[in-house]
Write a structure and sequence with these properties.
By secondary structure, the chain is α+β, with helices and mostly antiparallel strands. It has helices at residues 41-53, 109-116, 124-129, 132-142, 148-176, 192-239, 244-272, 281-337, 365-379, 396-408; strands at residues 6-12, 19-23, 29-35, 72-78, 82-89, 92-99, 345-347, 353-355, 358-359, 385-388, 412-418, 426-429, 432-436. The chain has two domains: 6-122 and 380-436, Rossmann fold, CATH 3.40.50.300; 145-337, Helix Hairpins (Orthogonal Bundle), CATH 1.10.287. Helix 6 (192-239) packs antiparallel against helix 7 (244-272).
């Protein structure tokens, strides 16, 4: 949409005004509205805002009751051919927008004005008086770069890192509560089950060895019995020849038994050769010590696992910090490459407004004025208009600077100023135009 300028304002019984008509050049420049306090200077700026900005900019009582009026109106003519008139009665207000004085009426008039009007009520000099947060928010609204995604991702990373660091502190606390395991502790627990099986095997072996020894002893006792029987048999043979046959039979039997006993003894001795009892005390001692060793092994493993958890959490925290730093660099690059209303103006990643590498608060007054006016122009890209309400604070050199910048920016700056001097383009007295002075458009 092409640049649009206000060419005329007509107001009747609006706020402190009774009847005011002011014409403007359809170009950028400075118009100073002078007058005493309470004369109606501010009402001129407010009347334009009420006509174009909609009900949200209209006060509860727009009619000048002091003059005895029961109705009021404000009309603004634009150089694009639109004539905007808003009338006020006790019943409410009525907006009429038409193409020319007697031209066709525009349908949806406020919607048409909303497309045309930017920050209509923005006072450029107010930018310099804003808090750092307000100034940053205003500039963010102008700069064509979306840093909200950076801020959201940074906030998510910050919250994630905060949770990780909380877990890290808990893990480190738990690790510190675990005393170091002293001594030569094995890496794995001792199997008490395996030791018990080994003990049982040894005990079975020893039982078998004992049985073999007992068997040898029994055989030897049996052999002794048979030897005794053999001796008794010899006596019987000598004493009882008559029983020789029987005795010889018994002798033969005893001999057989002796041979059998010798053979069994030999076999038993052979079976027991090299079989010695196993000392089970070391195994019993190991079983006794296994619980203590295994507790140390478990403690060692738990501490190693906790140390690994701490290391992993620390790495995760470090990675998140690195991602946050990378995100800040990307955000800084996006802000640095953004299109700003004036060269040298930029936003830092933390939201600070900087002009020519100096914080805005520390810039010279002339630089603040130049930046503020550029902001005003950016906030009104189509309707080239803004109002300055504290013009009395500007000295003569500053007024010259404002006029020059307004001309360069093709921005109509309407500035109210206490006084009736020659610098005033229009002087308001008692709600009316007292007289008109020279234009400042060529200053």
């Amino acid at each position: 949409m092409n640049a649009t300028h206000i060419t005329q304002l007509t107001a009747e019984n609006i706020l402190r005004l009774e009847a005011v008509e002011i014409a403007f050049e359809p170009t950028g420049g400075l118009t100073i509205i002078g007058g005493k306090n309470g004369a109606g200077k501010t009402s001129v700026l407010n009347a334009i805002a009420m006509a174009l900005g909609g009900r949200k900019l209209c006060p509860e009582e727009p009619i000048n009751r002091k003059s005895g009026a029961t109705k009021a109106s404000v009309k603004v003519t634009l150089d694009n051919g639109l004539v905007v008139e808003r009338r006020f009665t006790p019943k409410g207000d009525y907006l009429h927008v038409a193409h020319g004085e007697d031209g066709p009426k525009v349908s949806s008039p406020q919607a048409v004005l909303d497309e045309l009007v930017g920050a209509l009520t923005f006072d450029p000099l107010a930018f310099a008086r804003m808090s750092s947060e307000e100034r940053s928010a205003t500039l963010h609204g102008i700069v064509d770069v979306d840093v909200s995604s950076f801020d959201t991702r940074h906030e998510n990373l910050y919250e994630t890192r905060r949770d990780v660091n909380r877990s890290l502190r808990d893990a480190e606390g738990a690790l510190n509560d675990m005393p170091p395991v002293e001594g030569n502790v094995p890496e794995e627990e001792i199997s008490i089950s395996d030791l018990s099986q080994e003990l049982e095997r040894c005990q079975t072996h020893n039982t078998n060895v004992q049985k073999l020894a007992d068997n040898v002893e029994a055989k030897e006792r049996q052999l002794e019995v048979w030897r005794q029987q053999h001796a008794e048999a010899l006596v019987l043979v000598e004493q009882r020849q008559r029983e020789l046959a029987q005795a010889q039979e018994r002798l033969a039997t005893a001999n057989d038994h002796i041979d059998q006993g010798k053979q069994e003894i030999a076999e038993a001795v052979k079976a027991s050769e090299g079989k010695q009892p196993v000392d089970t005390k070391p195994i019993r001692d190991q079983i006794t010590q296994a619980d203590e060793i295994n507790r140390a092994v478990r403690a060692k493993k738990a501490r190693a696992a906790q140390a690994a958890k701490v290391k992993a959490l620390q790495k995760e925290s470090d990675d998140l910090t690195a991602n946050m730093e990378t995100l800040q660099v990307k955000k800084q690059k996006a802000l640095a490459e953004a299109k700003y209303p004036i060269d040298g103006l930029t936003l830092t990643p933390d939201g600070a407004v900087v002009y020519k590498n100096v914080p805005f608060e520390q810039a010279a007054d002339s630089e603040k004025l130049r930046v503020s006016l550029a902001i005003g122009a950016a906030l009104n890209p189509t309707l080239r208009f803004c109002g300055v309400r504290d013009g009395s604070l500007l000295d003569e050199q500053s007024l010259i600077e404002v006029a020059k910048m307004a001309k360069e920016a093709d921005l109509r700056v309407l500035l109210e100023r206490v006084g009736e001097g020659q610098e005033c383009s229009v002087v308001i007295e008692a709600g009316r135009v007292k007289h008109k002075g020279e234009s400042h458009d060529q200053s």
